[in-house]
Amino acid sequence: MLIHTGPIGMYKNIKEKIKEVVSLQKLAYVSFLHFESDEWGEMAFLESADAKLVCSDLSSNLNMMGWYNVPVDHISVWDNDILKTGKKHFKFIMTPHVHHWDSMMIFE
Asked: 24, 55, 56, 68: least surrounded by Cβ within 10 Å?
């Protein structure tokens, strides 16, 4: 799972670091902790046809519909949900606050 794609222009460097660990074709999940350009400004992870976007249910309902180039097909999670990715399990804790009510933390 890649958490955050970074702002526009940053993904090229991130992509090279990802390839040191796993091929882009094997990247299964990409998540962001809240919907904002510094978390989600680059969407080049879509080079991986099988990558699934993971976001909070609030992000899904508030932000994921009607934006250009945002994948409609995604996984939305809520407080204490667990995503099993094989050997890893990720737990999602919602952490809403005034500026980002769709915020969450992810724990392995």
From this structure: 68
- Count how many Cα atoms sit within 13 Å of the Cα of residue 47 in the half-sphere of its side chain: 12
Count structural domains, the chain.
1
User: Domain holding 23: CATH number?
Assistant: 3.60.15.10
Find the DSSP H helices in the chain: 11-21, 37-40, 57-63
pLDDT at 79: 97
Domain extent at residue 24:
2-107
Segment 1-58, tens digit of pLDDT = 888 877 877 777 888 888 899 888 888 888 888 887 777 766 655 566 678 889 999 8
